[in-house]
Amino acid sequence: TGSTTTKFTGAKSMYFDGTGDGIVIPHSDNFNLNGCDWTIEYWFNLPNPNAIANCNFISKGSNASVRPYAINFRLDNSNGVEPRLFVSSDNSSQVGISNSAWQTFGNWHHVAFVRIDSTGVITRYINGTANGTATSDLATNTEKLEIGTVTSGADEEGYIQDLRITKGKARYTANFTPPTASLEG
Fold this sequence. Notes:
mainly beta
């Protein structure tokens, strides 16, 4: 069941307590995002500044079996909370978007990572504003998709709502107004 702490009235979010709970989705080629446009977006809210430090929120590939991750969204709490992206095109090297874009605790923030295949550029949008880029494709792997947990044990505490992974479409190509209602489709 979902949590009643939500961004939008009448919706649900998922709460992860940071102690091993999470969503684990078996491998599907639908989650191999190499060689195409894609968008991964979600709302997140981290209420407890003492509960995190470089914890994994969403990953495909784990530190234990594929290092570095094919795709890894981390949250760091040095000066607030920053959604970070680390990706690998070959499962042996990685690039990241991590540039001190600190967001506040206890508030909902919209994050979108968008890749345009023709340029290879991945752009991070925080609350609708472009903030950081990296150039990379994603390695194909057969690892599970993990949300709120990861095999290496660096689990996250917080809320996530409206996680949407869109393969084949770059939904945002310039600054935008974040969604004002729950995502559809």
